[in-house]
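Replying to the earlier thread about multi-chain prediction with a worked example.

Input:
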Amino acid sequence: MADYNMHLLVCGGTGCKASQSELIKMNLKNQLTELGLEEDIQVIHTGCFGFCEKGPIVKIQPDNTFYVSVTPEDTKEIIEEHIVKGRKVERLLYKDPSTKTSIIESKNMDFYKKQVRIALRNCGFINPDNIEEYVANDGYEALAKCLGEMTPEETTKLIIDSGLRGRGGGGFPTGLKWDITRKVEGDQKYVVCNADEGDPGAFMDRSILEGDPHTVIEAMAICGYCIGADKGLVYIRAEYPLAIERLKTAIGQAQEYGLLGEGILGTDFNFDIELRYGAGAFVCGEETALIHSMEGLRGEPTFKPPFPSVSGYLGKPTNVNNVETFANIPPIINKGAEWFGSIGTENSKGTKVFALAGKINNVGLIEVPMGTTLREVVYDIGGGIKDGKEFKAVQTGGPSGGCLTKDFLDTPIEYDSLIAAGSMMGSGGMIVMDEDDCMVAIAKFYLEFTLDESCGKCTPCRIGNKRLYEILDKITEGKGEPEDLDRLRALSDVVKDTSLCGLGQSSPNPILSTIENFFGEYESHVTIQKCPAGQCKSLLQYIIEDEKCTGCTLCFRHCPVGAISGEKRSPHFIDQSLCIKCGVCYQKCKFDAIKIA
Amino acid sequence: MTKIKSLADLKKLKDEVQSKIKLREKGDHPENLVQIKVSMATCGIASGAKETMNYFIETLDNQGVDALVTQTGCMGYCYAEPTIELTIPGKEPVIYGFVDKVKAQEIIDKHVIKNELVDGIIPVNYKTIDD
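Result:
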């Protein structure tokens, strides 16, 4: 068995590879072999460290030293100084930007870890189908602590003091919501978990339910204890079969262990949980619509007040929280409000989970402290834009949010600053766009989604969104006129101001934020009928440049509609009336002779 | 299963489970096992985590390696699915990404059998609540 006593970990993430980390690895290996150390020290490539801004990165284990911005020329020095003489190469250590001093102590070498996992603390660690693994990781201790040592008032106060705000998007203080529901008189109260995650590209709640279902069960029981409810309901979409299965298994185990049911942990507190399935309608994420759907009625929102805290499920006081909000509760109770308050910013405490997607290298599920900047998320954790392209915008808040440009990259992620920037926190979808994305088409995509998902109860949302969509469609078809931009703005304002629920009140946000931030792009669509990103097919024309075309016939052979004609070894020609703008000729041409006009 | 009736019961169960896990992780014990966790959320399964898990179970069994292969939830590295976490008794857990059957075999041959690391380790890039 090979027994290496040291490992050199060279980052092989996309960003570091682009800055020659392959060569760094090879140099290190060769130099170790020259010194005859190849049997003692192993050099390996790793995945992304999540600190791409300072790549390429070389980490030395076991002494935990972290070298940044390493070049292939630096390898000799690392080997001669660090490995042979045991001295750290000071100039390659990370320098704290504020103090300009190098970080030398190995115990401080964790600075590159931008993520903190609270809601996801057990995801990917424990077996979700085994309650004992949850118990081994402090599971149900928070519930035991509340039932045994704290009154409902004290527990609620602890949640208020922690500063936890709803993670479903709205950001309402969770403790306050509990307190309101607790104070309302009622013979029967309900705790509802909103697992109707509907934003395109978002999967935070699904991952929590699939990876750590017991945390949601425990938190719901704690909530029940606080507000005086003995019944919990999880509203989950039927599109999440695995999450449902694991949740069911977990509920069964909790009942078997006496952690759900009657007389929990030897007290007189009773609590049980049932599942209610949704059919995957976006509007049912809105709490009143969700409650109506659970009651067997149509999933349509109703006017608030009365809030569910006063009159919710079956007219009884009901506390609705999102999955991720619940997942934060047990650690807050175990570690205290002060601990939770020490993470995040003044008005946004704790962390937020994001589903990072789009044109980014490290697509993934991440959890960052509030106050982390968009730049850190996109360039460090996300590893930057795919294929070295230019960053254009990041979309947060799903169909209710907005697109933020590179001017906003240093915006800290927190409820209020994102709203001030013209977007919102939302439930946690984060989609990154590059130079090839057309912002008009993006706005149209989100409008199409809201159009599908509008319940149709109120006129502004049902008809207003349809008209907005039609205008956007007209613009992307090249039939837009400058006045359309004013129409979009005016109608957006009407829809926002007059819709009944959050869906319609926020559905024009993608349009407004893209007009605001990418006005030039809209303008060129409606004035010179051009799509700067080259995405809107109706506004494109593929043209063959005679000088470059060699007549190889490759495009002719691949054109699916026979729009290309020409003799062998002489320039070809595209018949625009037949062309469907599929772009195959453009991709196939080896001589760069096809241009997009 | 007797029901948990108090905090003391819960703590007792916790200690029992934790010591069971410790035994598994520490060496020098008959229960000394190689542990592999496969990330099995919907997305992992869609990228082939089930095949990977079955491959580990069958291959390790055929080669007579005492190993415990279990499922877990999403590790968050969607770009590198399927992902696994490998723990050799007495060592720090290591996460590998893009573990298809070929990679799985390489991990078994090198890391499990010879205790060498294999290219493609995903460094832990987050802090936990205990840090």
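Chain B has one domain: 29-122.

Feel free to reuse this layout for your own posts.
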